[in-house]
Design goal:
Blueprint lengths: L4 E3 L15 E4 L4 E3 L13 H10 L5 E5 L5 E5 L1 H12 L1 H4 L6 E5 L7 H13 L6 H13 L3 H11 L5 H8 L4 H9 L4 H9 L6 H15 L5 H29 L17 E2 L3 E2 L8 H4 L5 E5 L5 E5 L8 E2 L9 H35 L6 H13 L2 H9 L3 H7 L9 H7 L5 H16 L11 H16 L8 H7 L9
Parallel strand pairs: 3-5, 4-6
Antiparallel strand pairs: 1-2, 2-6, 4-5, 7-10, 8-11, 9-10
Helix pairs in contact: 1-2, 4-5, 5-7, 7-9, 10-11, 11-13, 13-18, 14-18, 15-18, 16-18
């Protein structure tokens, strides 16, 4: 019958191993793969490992947990255990002795699946061959199954944040090739999860890789370019979702959506605004609804533009108007329209990273001097944008900056009474930033940025650079402040 023999430890164990520091010698036949072993691919021993174990045995101890059936589950060293089993299977035939295998028997881990999986993950992460998918799955499962104390300790050891389990689950949506590229490109767990979030947006991976490289090239550890690119990708994703909803609404109403027409074919359809009835009356959505040709196209903002698919066939007339060929000015106007829509969308997207950065500033133990001085100047000079905002008594944005729960219902009077003296300056900046954010909330603000609005954005840009590049202005914001920069001002 196989036995386990104890030997004195070579040196005291640390942390969790203090309860089971001894090394025992196990018959390899008693060892099975632990269900919480993090490695799920490349689990078989290679030829080199088998040859080594056949000649000299297993030098490095494996780690196991006792099982109810008398076997031991290997959560570290399962490939070594398999190599020992194969070596013993041919030992008598080869004239070699059958060897036992050194093992740490971790009785303290019985029933602690989360921590067992974490220890296996740490072991295998630093060994060649563990796939990115195995790492992510083990991070997710181990952190979910831990107590709060163990989870905080494990997250710190893995170098991940408090949302690591959720992020690991999200990241697993990516295919293996993309996971490998993300790891090779230097994406951390949070960034890999964010890539999975927007993976359906065209060129998302390449765009994020370029943003990540820009952050790396600046060498200060920030992720400002990444955050701005993510904001744009989320905006584009939302736009695509809105378009899909608009298409679905047309489908539900049994209204055909007209597709693109090849350039070599004549488009028989026409917008209703350019048509009349046979008697010359205007055509609208309501009075055209029963026409067999009633259809629509979606404009750049995903709103339906009502058409008749074939006015000539269904008895409509084209409104009389002088025909003129499309000119270069028409092309320029169309290009400008597309640019305005793109800039409007980018301006709205940039509010997310910007307000997240303001929130971080407000919650700092010590507010940066530049932010304090800016807030003090606003308070003392009371520019129009600030005084007009205070009349509106809009407190929700300020409450979000301060980190209050349910900011939409926050009571300013109660907040002021509970505010510590040391946080008064931070609250003042939050108040001023709330006014500034209100002043630049409209999507078209980029086209007519005022001096005060530009000063606010330039302040955040400087503070972001001072904070290791943790915040960068977006492209549309940089474009908007160009004429207000000190070195270009007239």
């Amino acid at each position: 019958m196989a036995t386990a023999v104890s030997t004195p430890p070579t040196k005291p164990g640390t942390h969790e191993e203090e309860d089971a520091p001894q090394i025992v010698y196990l018959d390899p036949a008693l060892v099975v793969r632990d269900e919480c072993n993090a490695r799920e691919t490349n689990t078989e021993p290679d030829k080199e490992l088998i040859s080594s174990v056949r000649e000299i045995g297993v030098e490095e101890a494996i780690s196991v947990r006792p099982r109810p059936d008398g076997t031991y589950g290997a959560f570290k060293g399962w490939r070594r255990a398999q190599a020992a089993q194969l070596a013993n299977a041919t030992a008598e035939e080869d004239g070699r002795p059958a060897r036992k295998i050194k093992a740490h028997v971790r009785e303290d881990l019985v029933g602690r699946d989360g921590w067992t999986r974490f220890l296996s993950l740490v072991e295998n992460t630093h060994r060649e061959g563990m796939s990115e998918r195995d790492i992510l799955k083990s991070q997710e499962l181990s952190l979910i199954e831990m107590s709060d104390v163990e989870r905080r300790q494990a997250a710190k050891a893995l170098g991940v944040g408090r949302n690591a389990a959720k992020q690991a689950k999200s990241a697993q949506q990516l295919d293996d090739a993309t996971l490998r590229r993300a790891a090779a490109g230097g994406m951390d767990l949070e960034q890999t999860a964010q890539l999975a979030e927007v993976a359906d947006v065209r060129s998302a991976e390449n765009r994020l890789m370029r943003a990540l490289q820009r952050d790396h090239d600046e060498g200060n550890g920030g992720r400002g370019h990444w955050d701005q690119e993510m904001a744009l990708l989320r905006a584009e994703q939302a736009d695509a979702e809105n378009r899909a909803k608009a298409e679905e609404a047309l489908k539900a109403a049994n209204i055909p959506l007209l597709g693109p027409v090849p350039s070599y074919e004549k488009d028989p359809s026409c917008p209703l605004t350019e048509l009349t009835t046979g008697l010359g009356n205007p055509l609208t959505e309501d009075n055209h609804r029963n026409c067999p040709g009633h259809s629509a196209r979606l404009d750049l903002e995903n709103l339906p533009v009502w058409h008749c698919a074939n006015p000539a066939e269904y008895g409509h007339k084209v409104r009389p108007k002088p025909k003129k060929p499309r000119t270069e000015a028409d092309e320029q106007a169309a290009a400008e329209r597309r640019k305005v829509i793109a800039c409007n969308r980018a301006w709205k997207a940039a509010a997310g990273p910007r307000q997240e950065f303001v929130t971080r500033l407000v919650r700092m133990k010590t507010l940066p001097d530049a932010a304090r001085l800016f807030a003090q100047e606003i308070l003392l000079t009371l520019p129009h944008f600030y005084s007009s905002w205070t009349e509106k008594r809009e407190f929700e944005t300020v409450a979000r900056f301060l980190g209050l729960k349910k900011p939409e219902n926050a009571d300013p009077t109660e907040t002021a009474a509970q505010l510590p003296k040391a946080r008064v300056v931070n609250a003042l900046f939050a108040h001023v930033a709330g006014a500034c954010e209100y002043g630049i909330r409209e999507p078209k603000t980029w086209s007519h940025l005022s001096a005060w609005q530009a000063r606010y954005l330039l302040l955040l840009e400087a503070l972001g650079q001072a904070d290791n590049g943790s915040y960068q202005l977006s492209e549309v914001e940089s474009q908007a402040v160009t004429r207000h920069r000190p070195d270009t001002a007239a």
